[in-house]
Specification:
- This protein is α+β, with helices and mostly antiparallel strands and 77 residues long.
- The chain is 27% helix and 18% strand.
- It contains three helices and five strands.
- The strands form two sheets. Strands 1-2-3 form a three-stranded antiparallel sheet, with no helix packed on it. Strands 4-5 form a two-stranded antiparallel ribbon.
Length: 77
């Protein structure tokens, strides 16, 4: 389980083994409240969602500026 902020600021480089039987999301310490690395095993549904985002060429970072408009946090949540 992760906090909303970690999810919103996820980067592609944090995901490992998305095409393997043991995909992981490795969140670096500097992005975690307790300042220690957090490793999250990804379920098939999570991997499928990431694959869809990648195929559609959409931003992984949902807080990014798109068409010069910032996406409000309320919309993301």
């Amino acid at each position: 389980m992760v906090r909303t902020q970690e999810t919103r600021f996820a980067e592609w480089s944090e995901f490992e083994g998305l095409d393997t039987s043991e995909p992981l999301w490795r969140i670096p310490p500097e992005r975690m409240k307790m300042r220690s690395e957090h490793v999250v095993p990804l379920p098939p549904q999570g991997v499928a969602l990431l694959d869809e985002i990648r195929r559609s060429n959409r931003y992984l970072e949902l807080n990014s500026t798109v068409l010069n408009q910032r996406i409000p946090t309320e919309v993301i949540l």
